[in-house]
Specification:
heterodimer, A: 205 residues, alpha/beta, 5-stranded parallel β-sheet, 9 helices, 5 strands, elongated, B: 234 residues, alpha+beta, 5-stranded mixed β-sheet, 7 helices, 51% helix
């Protein structure tokens, strides 16, 4: 997939901390966008790139945890690295359960944070390419005719061409023809591969 | 300060240090490391490193200002507890604030109850409380139209109890009940008011005097009130 980026978002109400975080990211050649509040981040037009979010847990207005919930609710899939002023076990458990990538206690070591960011960006890239693959599979699947879909279901169910022909009331030649189209449109090299593709589509609903 | 008042006060102190002192120091550390990295790898321009250094200077200054505030708030003089006339004390406190009141063009309303019994209190500490509450009220008011500004200082005798009630009312920023509550909660997030530490000290002082300090919102701003026990008649 051809894409540029990555991009690191920093959301912190303290201007000094925010600027320090941004400078640290720039010092390792990572582009940054800074926001002073969760609301600013939510309402901002954000480029669609592999990205991660560095977030202060405690902020006035919408807190870091609330922002995480809203992002999840809005279907925004972005790894979140939480920063907290003091270790709060209960809060960190809540954040990790809600899918936080990391939960770091201030003062955060620079290398520790840089490592966490690189890891979160890798997760984001992975998620994006996986989403792109699924979207591609869905495109291929939807290009099948209703008849081809019927054949596909029976092929992956382990039925032989003869059985499929009998089941659908078609000639053997026609079944072979449909089957060829299915393999071609789905770009599947084997039945095993086709099975995996369909399973993947079923997993995402 | 007695031991039983220490936890709440210590909490406020710790929150202040964690937020107002540690935060700038943490930013300094990270900025310095970023600059160092940027210089070593050439990832930051000279301008970016220069801005970083300016930031470091400003943050260190901010941290040392905070430490000075901490010293001022915790190193209060004490005069020992004596029979104190609260109205005189409030008048003196208002007189000390004359310049600030004049610069804001605020004429305070003194709504004092005559013939109040004396309170058993440390006058220097209580004056610190009164001054902090009035300073907070003034802090809340700039930016409002002059006609809307007002400061009311009230003294009353509590009904049915041997105590005196003092109120400092402002027509400043309108707050919700939960915002008012949070003023006294040192861990309520990073949105602590500019006088969070000082207010925590005030509450510790008043509670140490067996009184109470609280605040409630009004239609125009808020009212901070504290009580002090009166001198027991022998």
């Amino acid at each position: 997939m051809n894409e540029s980026g990555p991009l690191v978002f920093v959301v912190d109400d303290d201007a000094s901390t925010r600027d320090a975080l941004a400078l640290l990211m720039r010092s390792v050649h990572l582009p940054v966008q800074e926001y002073a509040s969760a609301a600013d981040f939510l309402s901002a037009k954000r480029p669609d790139l592999p990205s991660c979010l560095i977030l202060d847990v405690r902020m006035p207005g919408l807190s870091g945890l609330e922002l995480q919930q809203q992002l999840t609710a809005a279907g925004v899939d972005i790894p979140v690295i939480f920063l907290t002023g003091h270790a709060d076990v209960r809060m960190s458990v809540r954040a990790m359960k809600a899918g936080a990538a990391e939960f770091l206690t201030k003062p955060v070591g620079d290398q520790e944070l840089i490592d966490a960011v690189h890891q979160a960006l890798a997760v984001s890239r992975q998620a994006r390419s996986s989403r792109a693959e699924v979207a591609d599979l869905q495109r291929r699947f939807s290009s099948l005719t209703p008849r081809e879909k019927e054949v596909l279901q029976r092929v992956i169910g382990g039925m032989l061409n003869k059985q499929i022909a009998g089941d659908l009331g078609l000639s053997l030649v026609t079944v072979k023809l449909h089957r060829g189209h299915v393999m071609q449109k789905m770009q599947a090299g084997s039945v095993a591969e086709l099975v995996k593709m369909v399973q993947r589509l079923e997993r995402v609903g | 300060m007695s031991n039983r008042q220490m936890p709440a006060f210590l909490e406020a102190l710790l929150a202040f240090i964690a937020h107002d002192v540690n935060q700038p120091l943490g930013a300094v550390l990270m900025t310095a490391r970023a600059c160092r990295r940027g210089l070593a790898t050439g990832s930051l321009s000279a301008d970016q490193v220069g801005d970083g250094l300016d930031r470091i200077v400003a943050d260190v200054e901010r941290a040392s200002e905070m430490l000075a505030r901490l010293r001022a708030a915790t190193g209060r003089p004490s005069a020992g507890r004596v029979a104190t006339d609260i109205n005189t004390l409030l008048q003196r406190t208002l007189a000390d604030l004359e310049d600030e009141l004049a610069s804001l063009a605020i004429v305070p309303a003194m709504d004092f109850c005559a013939n109040l019994p004396p309170v058993h209190a440390d006058p220097l500490q209580v004056q610190y409380v009164a001054r902090t509450l009035m300073a907070r009220a003034l802090d809340a008011m700039p930016g409002r139209a002059e006609s809307a500004q007002s400061l009311i200082v009230r003294s009353r005798r509590s009904v049915g109890v041997d105590e005196v009630l003092v109120e400092v009312e402002d027509a400043g920023a309108i707050m919700t009940a939960s915002e008012v509550e949070r003023i006294f909660d040192p861990f309520a997030g990073t949105s602590q008011g500019p006088l969070s530490l000082e207010l925590a000290v005030c509450r510790a002082i008043i509670e140490d005097h067996d009184g109470r300090l609280g605040a409630v919102p009004t239609a125009h701003g808020s009212v901070f009130r504290f009580t002090l026990p009166t001198v027991h008649e022998p």
